Amino acid sequence: MGWIDACQALTADAIDEGDLLPSIDPPAFARFVIAAFTGVRTVSQVLADCGDLERRVDEMWVLLLPGIMPAVRHQDIARIRAARATAVVVGEQTPA
After folding, report:
1. How far apart (Å, rounded) are the C-alpha atoms in residues 92 and 65?
2. With contact defined as beta carbons under 8 Å apart, do 27 and 8 qualify?
3. Residue 81: CB partners within 8 Å, gap ≥ 6?
4. pLDDT for res 73
5. Whole-model pTM?
6. Count of helix runs (H) and strand runs (E) in the chain
7. Which of 13, 14, 27, 43 could form an SS bridge with 19, CB 3.0 to 4.6 Å?
């Protein structure tokens, strides 16, 4: 399964679970998110040798989440960001 297919499946699951708006088209959203991430990564690579990639990805989601989540779930955004930040820190401490 490729990146877009995986993102599409996760998007459909998130819609089913009420985490994303039901109006979102999973195939279109998956293509968009993968393209957006690719752009964010490219800019980070060019400008900072990917040293600021985590910050840039976080910024991407800060801008996207309020528009794709049901309003009743917006209070979860801070928790989602915190969990992502924790996962990143743990991942950095894990030996390769």
Report:
1. 25
2. yes
3. 58, 61, 62
4. 94
5. 0.82
6. 4, 0
7. 14
Tell me the C-alpha distance between 59 and 96, whole Å.
26
Amino acid residing at 36: A
How many domains, the chain? 1
34 and 3 Cβ atoms separated by less than 8 Å:
yes
Helix axes 77-93, 53-68, angle to 10 degrees: 150
87: left (phi over 0), alpha (psi -120 to 50) or beta: alpha
- For 11, the domain range is 3-93
Cβ neighbors of 50 (< 8 A, separation 6 or more) are 41, 44
Look up residue 83 and give its two tokens: 């969990």
